[in-house]
Amino acid sequence: MVLTALFDMPEGKAQLMLRYDISAAGEVNVTQKMTTDKEVQVADLFGFGLQLQMPATFSKLEYYGRGPEENYVDRHSSAFIGKYESDVKDEYYPYIRPQEIGNHTDIRYFSIFNPTTGKGIIFEGYEPMECSAIPYLVEDLDSGIEKTHAWGQHNGDLVDKGLVQLHIQKCQYPLGCIDS
């Protein structure tokens, strides 16, 4: 079965196409393509990929890529390619101000599963990708551009929502460190 979804993105003068090829064995091949108007001036794209939420019972990770600590395209030379296992809760580091966290680069496969049942999902790419799984939503980690309200400014403000947010991406914007 093949399902195709088209999304108009008028603010960016773009269109996003998602195609899902679903096999009888339960495998899903996802193709994502964004077509843009090259004449339009828009902000840089933070990342290109998919995000989804899963119940917190999917709490174990296994992946082959750079790890075990978080790493980013401009900060990964100390993270070596290998096979790693982790708990989702350990992918979050309590920086004083909540922020993007837990990314892994050069991923060949990334699986998340329920340790009790052993059931889960495996993500594989045709080329290396970037992935993360954390127990918070992006909105929980970033209180906005101006940071004018008191709530959301500190790690202790985060509330457990009983979920896991996955990011499966082709790439994510660099951190912007001194060597970027």
UniProtKB/TrEMBL annotation:
It catalyses: Hydrolysis of terminal non-reducing beta-D-galactose residues in beta-D-galactosides. Its EC number is 3.2.1.23. One of its GO terms (molecular function) is carbohydrate binding. Its cofactor is Ca(2+). The keyword Calcium applies. Residues 1-180 form the Beta galactosidase small chain/ domain. Keywords: Calcium, Glycosidase, Hydrolase. Monomer. This is beta-galactosidase. It comes from Segatella copri. The lineage of its organism: Bacteria, Pseudomonadati, Bacteroidota, Bacteroidia, Bacteroidales.
